[in-house]
Amino acid sequence: MTSAPNAETGIEQAIGARNAALSAKDAGGVIASGAPGFVSYSLAPPLQEAGGEGGLDAWFDTWNGPIGYALQGLKITAGDEVGFAHGLVHMTGRKTDGEVVDLWFRETLGLKLIGGAWKIVHEHSSVPSYMDGSFRAAVDLTP
Can you tell me the distance from the alpha carbon of 53 to that of 60, in angstroms, rounded to the nearest whole number? Predict the structure, then answer.
């Protein structure tokens, strides 16, 4: 499928607004980027979160200052009403306990054009795990 140029631009803008809200720790802005009942497979438990805020404010409270949230290598495939995007996220910042976060992970977003605006209907974020029997998350990888 060839991406529709207007769809690709709209999706880029929607993702940019969501990522800016994440960086600013703006839970309302993050939620506004999603469609009602969107499904999230995020890094944090539970295995699936459907709609709602999913504890964003509590998570944001664990950070000192803004959260670096840069989506790199964004690839978009879209039609007139649906699309998906994927890339690598580089999340950085300092937690309230002093821990410095410098994490790369994978992210795929499914979007739908609703009422003239691109909304996220599905989010999947993941880190690979070591297949050496330890099943440790491979949080030390960089591109």
Answer: 12
pLDDT tens-digit map of 19-61? 999 999 999 999 999 999 889 888 887 888 776 566 889 999 9
How far, rounded to the nearest angstrom, does the alpha carbon of residue 12 sit from its chain's CA centroid?
13
Fold (CATH) for 5-126 = Nuclear Transport Factor 2; Chain: A, (3.10.450)
User: Quick one: CA dihedral 113, 114, 115, 119, positive or negative?
Assistant: negative
pTM of the model: 0.89
Tokens linked to 77 = 């495939």
Q: Which two tokens stand for residue 101?
A: 């976060």
Kindly list the domain boundaries of the chain, sorted by start residue.
Answer: 5-126
In sequence order, what are the beta bridge partners of 93?
101
Which among 79, 65, 69, 77 is positioned nearest to 30, based on CA atoms?
69
H-run or E-run covering 125: strand 117-126
Q: How far apart are CA 107 and CA 46, in angstroms?
A: 17
